[in-house]
Prior knowledge:
- The structure is a homotetramer.
- By secondary structure, chain A is α/β, with parallel strands linked by helices.
- The first copy, chain A, has two domains: 4-216 and 325-381, 3-Layer(aba) Sandwich (Rossmann fold), CATH 3.40.50; 221-321, 2-Layer Sandwich (Dihydrodipicolinate Reductase, domain 2), CATH 3.30.360.10.
- Helix content of chain A is 42%, strand content 18%.
- Chain A has helices at residues 14-27, 66-75, 81-95, 111-129, 155-162, 172-182, 199-207, 221-234, 250-257, 259-277, 323-343, 368-381; strands spanning 4-9, 54-60, 98-100, 133-138, 187-189, 211-213, 238-248, 285-289, 296-306, 312-322, 348-349.
- Chain A starts with a strand and ends with a helix.
- Chains A and B meet through helix 1, helix 8, strand 10, helix 11 and helix 12 of A and helix 1, helix 8, strand 10, helix 11 and helix 12 of B.
- Strand 10 of chain A pairs antiparallel with strand 10 (312-322) of chain B, so a sheet runs across the interface.
Amino acid sequence: MAPTGLWLIGARGSVATTAISGLLALRAKVIRPVGCVSALPTFEHAGLPDWDEIHLGGHDIVDTPLEKRAELLAESGVIPPAVFEAVRTGLSEVDTEIRCGYHPATHAGSQADAARRLSDDLAEFAQRNGLARVVVLSVSSTEPVFPSLPEHATLKALEAAMAVPGRTVLPPSSVSAYAALRAGCPYVDFTPSTGIRLPGLRELAGLSDLPYAGCDGKTGETLVRSALAPMFATRALAVRSWAGTNLLGGGDGLTLADAEHAGSKLASKGRGLATLLGGEVTAPLHIDNVPDLGEQKVAWDHVSFEGFLGVRMSLQFTWSGYDSALAAPLVLDLARFMAAAHANGESGPLAPLAFFFKDPLGTDEHRLAEQFAMLAEWAGSL
Amino acid sequence: MAPTGLWLIGARGSVATTAISGLLALRAKVIRPVGCVSALPTFEHAGLPDWDEIHLGGHDIVDTPLEKRAELLAESGVIPPAVFEAVRTGLSEVDTEIRCGYHPATHAGSQADAARRLSDDLAEFAQRNGLARVVVLSVSSTEPVFPSLPEHATLKALEAAMAVPGRTVLPPSSVSAYAALRAGCPYVDFTPSTGIRLPGLRELAGLSDLPYAGCDGKTGETLVRSALAPMFATRALAVRSWAGTNLLGGGDGLTLADAEHAGSKLASKGRGLATLLGGEVTAPLHIDNVPDLGEQKVAWDHVSFEGFLGVRMSLQFTWSGYDSALAAPLVLDLARFMAAAHANGESGPLAPLAFFFKDPLGTDEHRLAEQFAMLAEWAGSL
Amino acid sequence: MAPTGLWLIGARGSVATTAISGLLALRAKVIRPVGCVSALPTFEHAGLPDWDEIHLGGHDIVDTPLEKRAELLAESGVIPPAVFEAVRTGLSEVDTEIRCGYHPATHAGSQADAARRLSDDLAEFAQRNGLARVVVLSVSSTEPVFPSLPEHATLKALEAAMAVPGRTVLPPSSVSAYAALRAGCPYVDFTPSTGIRLPGLRELAGLSDLPYAGCDGKTGETLVRSALAPMFATRALAVRSWAGTNLLGGGDGLTLADAEHAGSKLASKGRGLATLLGGEVTAPLHIDNVPDLGEQKVAWDHVSFEGFLGVRMSLQFTWSGYDSALAAPLVLDLARFMAAAHANGESGPLAPLAFFFKDPLGTDEHRLAEQFAMLAEWAGSL
Amino acid sequence: MAPTGLWLIGARGSVATTAISGLLALRAKVIRPVGCVSALPTFEHAGLPDWDEIHLGGHDIVDTPLEKRAELLAESGVIPPAVFEAVRTGLSEVDTEIRCGYHPATHAGSQADAARRLSDDLAEFAQRNGLARVVVLSVSSTEPVFPSLPEHATLKALEAAMAVPGRTVLPPSSVSAYAALRAGCPYVDFTPSTGIRLPGLRELAGLSDLPYAGCDGKTGETLVRSALAPMFATRALAVRSWAGTNLLGGGDGLTLADAEHAGSKLASKGRGLATLLGGEVTAPLHIDNVPDLGEQKVAWDHVSFEGFLGVRMSLQFTWSGYDSALAAPLVLDLARFMAAAHANGESGPLAPLAFFFKDPLGTDEHRLAEQFAMLAEWAGSL
């Protein structure tokens, strides 16, 4: 396939650093593509870009070198020491393709100015590397819920407001999405932040004939829920309550345990369960910050259900994983699938990618097996 | 639909008693059909017999009245007291349709004689109640593994051996299957015992144009496994080990914890996992008899898997349920689906019923969602 | 021993109803004293009142008959049907000894008037039944946290404020404690509400030479914690985080999940853990209302700890119990131990009863084994 | 204190390598003594040898250098890379003090000869390093159960049989114990193998006025059980079943999952539970070999118990730890406590060390808190 760019918003974060290290390691053949959905035999003939056809770049608002970030992840057990050594040089090279991201607190002019700068970075990245296309994918920290404004309704109103100096009409995630679309890039929301989910931005995507996908990568508790909930539904077992507790360390724990930030995350987690089960279930959900867990996350779910003759039974599970190791291969998968979709001329929300998201755009399908079937069928048609 | 018989082998066991009580309760409208797959909207137009179109009868080698058995299940928490009161009279009526089962220890003549008696019971039951067809379904205790014999290979050799007085060429489950087929009845194996799984018996089913299904109802640990294992497979996560422990009380615990009996059960549990994951996984599995749990069963599974960059993670679950309450509605479902299949002229192993079994006949599909899709599609074609 | 009264504040609640039913069942010899600490051989010679030397009465603000409450508990699985039948008549008799409790919303005069009425009820109960003493024990619903007031500091200031008509200087739990002390009764706080924990009330207990004990019965998650935390401490393992989630149904779930009410409960749960481990542990704790669980409560705790060479390990447990069945026998135990303490002339906070409480008065000892040793030694000295 | 030797039988195994690395790291002050019981403030004045007063040596039948073994443990996550670097040189030095162990398959002469050689190694080690005493501690692989022989009954019969060339009257663990005693060394059994537990050997210990302790280090599931079982006992809750499953990787998993070897391990695990609970509990127990877990071990226990009014409840826990990291600090603790005991002139089985063992010698006390109290009191008396 033609050379493809993968531009990461939040390029120095844990997920991005793991994805970048992993891609370098795959190219160097020091790891196998475990966890990479796109490497399954199912997708062998889907015309996806090869590992060495993907060029990396990105935005971030911090400037810790990638190599330093990867070293910390190696200490946390996410990146094996041998892999770190193998990709160390490559990380420095990718570092030269990371540009300063946008944050209202450090930006003086209008949001239109900011978006223009971000778009320019994308255009230059494509030109410098001779890329046929650049997939922009956001893995930045989850934002607090951003208030809904009337200016979000149409592209025209939005751009008018963005032109006002000092005015913050969009959260950073949406400025990035806008910049991506303006630069003609397919866009993927891997976080629960607002991003592209505003009528004005979706209007722009439509006008630009660009595909986009999201939201919120499905990597742990919600993944398991989307596999288990259909079991109860197809067996006609009546789920009465589904309680969940998430223990997170790292920066994610800090960000998400904060009630305001967690708002968007909890909402995207809850939506799926309601759809899968029919909406009438008691489903308390917590996210706790447990710094000591580091990159690990632990989720406990307790499902209470009614069976034949009204008998009460229960299922509980504990999921213990490394968030970045679960998310990173999906980031690479999404880059490959989006590149193929764009090459294929697709536009609008890409429902066949629902398999990857907690809160999929373009479909209400939350059942994991059905999502995979959709993905496989779509990929077969590329 | 025309009146249908459901003839239960092991009609006084926990599963049968719960199924019978439940059917009576459904007819009396004192319970909703929770746990009944066939009552889902998906199957509304599949032409299945209604609850009051199903007539009950069966064989058993014990003679405790159904009412007494149901009372014990009420004390164990499987049948609510109010339901028990509502069906008490009905149970006595069903009791009059239960005939003495076959057991080598109490039978003098040849197995051919025994089979003839069982077939006659079926024919009389059908005639007495004006039934269009009788579905025979085995829920008797799991048998020890029965040795493979050359006589099992063909119907001719089998019938010759069965005619020899005092010779035990078949385990009781297979004698029942033979009798069912000879009486022109569709047959369902809800247990892991040998039953219909002998070439000579499958030959007879073919000659008789009869449908059959099995084996071993999927009600707990294996059900969850068939929902979860595809998640690992489609996410390209490499399962390294999948350990399981089952704690069972009741007669089932006693029967299955015994190594020889457990042989067939453990084998049918293991086959599914190997197929779902590709066969190279360490999968120790135990069944322990814990009498104190009564009708409850508890299963703990621990899955260790490898993700991106070789990182190790784990998932564990605990399933806590009432075996009979999980199995009973499926017994009713199978009676309805088999009746429809027979009415529709189908014959041979019914692969679309794989959804209900640990070790499905006629297909290697163990993935729960795919099994449900097969069932729904097939039912839609009836 | 001389006839003893047990007066329950919240006498129609789940815990009280279970305790009353259980005492009647013990007298009728239809159950064994499982769960009753005071029935262990250790306490055989401690001179405790026998089951039939305890007379029951109490206050409540609802008037559902005890028999009706017990019937609901029987349906929830807390009281076996046969036990319910055996104690049904006895419950009606106890009902005649239940008087209307105090609640600010339904009381017109001063809190002094209210307390006087409650005291009179106690005195009449004692006289009517010829009781040597009456142990007052609170099992009423957990109150919202009551603000601290200057008038709480001394008995004098408190009584002056209580005399003001319409003034609410005390929460209901403290009015009950005051009334008990004024009537010369030993007092036990089985809840986390304010109760006797005000300087002015403790002053009164001292002046009256009365023993008292509390607070907050230790029946589930905290019980397990007090057994497990010393394991980490004596093994020099460094606990880094101890997260807990509690799922409660019934009225308790409703009351405690409410953040304000939960305040007192969460505080009393947290204090023990900090003391046991040294206070520097991350310990997020949640209480969720899951109505569908009914009388059941489920707690999940996840402990992350550091071992030799800094290696990280974990322990998690799930406790699944019936709150009332866990609390009720302790209520009877406390009545017996308090009666013996009073007969023995003890006064002030009874530290040897710490074994029963989440937040013990009179001691900082939270280690379960050490608490039991204290109890056994003290009982041996009676 | 005077210089002390710690001589490890199985000196190149995982536990020994971790203990040796840890001691070197403690001396180098690159780790804190987390997991070391003897470093608790309680034992500050017990006169134990300091970390740098302990000299290391040992026997083993394999000759992989310690440095190589430690490197593998570093890769498995048991020894942090930085610690490994800090102790690498030290490990080579200790390596020079490791001598060839005894194994029947590679030994030609009599067991008396073999024992003499082992004793000589001990004497030379002591002399070479100017040691006041040498504690011999076995951490070798668990042996198959060794048959009981009449010659084990007395020291005289035993020595007569040992003198017969080619005769194997003792398992290797007992030959080592004999050699230790003959060399005047205190002896500790950290494994469930036969070791010192033969009348003839205990007779020799008595004659030699030597202290000894064992058996089978309590590091995981049994540790938790000894903390939790007393909770049920003191709360008068009737445990009905206590089921356990252990998943082990590494060499330990391979050795113990084998039924014959596991015999001794399962027996020592079971004895404690029976004593703690009174012996009438259903307690199925499994050890599974799950190579993929590496040095990790996972244990799941399910406790079913009866409470007040016969209500059934349950507690389950999952323990996930690194076996060597749990055992190693206890090895160092035992060396220190045994040295102090020997210096203090104690002899016979050291019951105060029960805290460390699954199957303690010299006492039936299995309750963890009581064991710690015994240890603290004894250490205070040194």
